[in-house]
Predict the structure.
Amino acid sequence: MAIVLFALAAAVGVTNGAAAQTYPSKPIRILVGTPPGGGADFVARSLAPRLSESMGVSVVVDNRAGANGVVASELLARASPDGYTLKVNIFGDVINPSLMKLNFDFLKDFAFVTQVAESQNILAAHPSFPAKGVRDLLALSKKNPGAISFGTQGIGSSGHLSGELFQYMTGVKWVHVPYKGGALALVDLMAGQISISFGNIPTMIQQVRAGKLRALAVTGAKRTAAAPDIPTVGESGVPGFAVSNWFGVSATGRTPHDILQRLNGEIARAMKLPEVRTAFQNAGADPVETTIEQYNAFIQVEYAKWSKVIKAAGIKGE
């Protein structure tokens, strides 16, 4: 029996090795869980032509929007584990399991390849708002619990969870005002209808530069190249605070490791191209390079952190 099992294991190893050696031999599909024009779509369409050139096969982008990326995630989870179906991961992927019932296991049914970029949110206020920075905001919030409203792109968005994490870490209490999109929140913030907002940098930076909004901080672990003069929330009074709109690439769970390594290397090579890095930075995103192991560790940390915050805040999916 032991000999038979050894022979079977060896056969599987040979099969996987052969698959990796011949990969890729047909077109690769990159799923995007948002409509064309968004951040995830930008990532996919930036990578596709470079991967196609370096890997010698057609790489196509397939937008399957719906349910905060769940539609595309289900397609990936059900795909063959052969490296021919990929997906651009977004922030929503790690929070969806805490907000809704899924027909797949995000941590088991995905094979995480690499993180590629991150962009941050800006914590901004109307110029007439009394707080000039995060410490002022903390003092004002503690003095007037429930008096400050924060507008976001919607329930479960990175802006929403930025605000919930801030409250969770500091003990202050704000009123959440969800909108159907960041543009609507921006309009009311500029009109002074809401106190503050955590909005995406590309959405808000021009209004900050024009003096129509006051930036209090950015939400990442470190300052962003897109706005190096704006301090982080962490350095401004809430140590350890970090939220980013990150992007990565995953394959279907159980995809052979050799194929994942090939994809990791090819994506890293594409992200090192000067024109790609410049395009990402111009879009308000900082390029990121990780190993497979580093990306898996990052996913685990993000998943655990947001599960805790969502539970503590009592957030329910729409």
